[in-house]
Amino acid sequence: MRGILLFTCMFAIAAGPPAKPLPAAVSAYIADVDAECRQGGGMPGQHGENMVQRGDFNADGNDDFVVNIGNYDCSGAEGLLQNGWMGHTIAVFADGRSKAWEGSGYRATVRGRQLFIDTAGIYCGQYPLQTRAISDAKHCSRPLAWDSKARKFAWGSLSKARSID
């Protein structure tokens, strides 16, 4: 009996503390995506690793949340949530309360306290895109910048974008 108790305690310590629950605005956004998946004939499954990332991207001391629909599992309707060649929707919630950015990209990555969106074409400074084949699109990882007056994120400077071609 003592061995079972010791094993249980060791497992609980190794598993770490339970994850903090998501803020209501983030949970509601995911519930809307679940509904869209069902409406399209799919079945929401396990949310992929890194579907929701947290970090303080606006340097205010509170967690902000990134919801990356590219890591969402909609079994039976896998392509439903794609935004064509631009990837999928990525949403950012400032302090978990309000949507502060939403756009298309391939992936959201965190480098230190900076949030980068992998994107292509005009968002990487390539003009005019209409005259180019999609396969010729320039790809980059571009930062989002916080606008404290508007309380929104916007595309950061192209000079800080990193080529991913």
Concise synopsis of the structure shown:
18% of the residues lie in helices and 33% in strands. With 165 residues, it is an alpha+beta fold. The termini are far apart.
Features:
single chain; 165 residues; four-stranded antiparallel β-sheet; 18% helix
Structural account:
This protein is α+β, with helices and mostly antiparallel strands and about 160 residues long. It is about 20% helix and about 35% strand. The strands form 3 sheets. Strands 7, 8, 9, 10 and 11 form a 5-stranded antiparallel beta sheet that branches. A 4-stranded antiparallel beta sheet has the order 2-3-5-6, covered by helices on one side. The protein has a two-stranded antiparallel ribbon with strand order 1-4. The longest helix is centred in the N-terminal third of the chain and has 16 residues, at about 25-40. The radius of gyration is 19 Å and the shape is globular.
Question: Could you describe the largest sheet, including whether it forms a barrel?
Answer: 5 strands, antiparallel
Number of domains: 1
Number of helices: 2
On the 0 to 100 scale, the average pLDDT is: 80
Query: Helical content, roughly?
Result: 10-25%
**In terms of per-residue confidence, which ranges show pLDDT below 50 for 5 or more consecutive residues?**
1-16
Strand % is 25-35%
Gyration radius from CA atoms, angstroms: 19 Å
Secondary-structure element order, N to C: HHEEEEEEEEEEE
Spatial separation of the terminal alpha carbons: 59 Å
